[in-house]
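Every protein is a chain of amino acids, and every chain bends into a shape of its own. Below is the pair of lines this work produces for a single protein:
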Amino acid sequence: MKYDMHIHTKYSLCSLNKPRDILKTAIKKKLDGICVVDHNTMKGSLETKKLNKNKNLEVIAGKEIRTNYGDCVVFYHQEDIKETDFLEVVDNVRKQDAFLTIAHPFRLLPYLKFKGDFSKANCIETYNARTFPWENKKAEKEGKELGLASIGGSDAHFPWEIGNGLTIFDDDLRTAIKKRTTYSKGIWVPGFFASMASFTIKKFRTLFS
């Protein structure tokens, strides 16, 4: 199974992805599933999930939360998680029998680096298509040492990025995460230029909002 576990919609200031376009691209690229997340909102993920009519594509509603320790992605939760304190987010995730991934934990920018206890997460993003290869390698090493499930995602903010980062596993994702049998792979080069474009879009939207 091939899942892209990190896709943003237009409801993130730095993304232009429309929910319908995400679905079309995911189907075109023959993905089995996608996890749709936005920064501190579930609006885009819930809209994408509602629009999906393809039984061969699983749409997971998720959310990227900027906590006091760094960014994390939560998914398979039934109720929205509004906390921003990392330890409170962890507690809520556990209560809902959901999952938490540490997102791009070793990114170059200091405010994007994760500064908390990795072991409290279920998963670690070992491949992020917008992250430098050596940063992904550090995440992969950290995940192996702590026994965390490996997650891959494109961190797509534009349709052409979707599928550039993947989580690979057999059968059911929940089971694979619990057994730690997932692995990640992807393409990095386009993500570097996409990151610069997203930064510009966010600044423009913030200026005129």
Observations:
- The domain at 2-208 is CATH 3.20.20.140 (TIM Barrel).
- The CA atoms of residues 166 and 185 lie 5 Å apart.
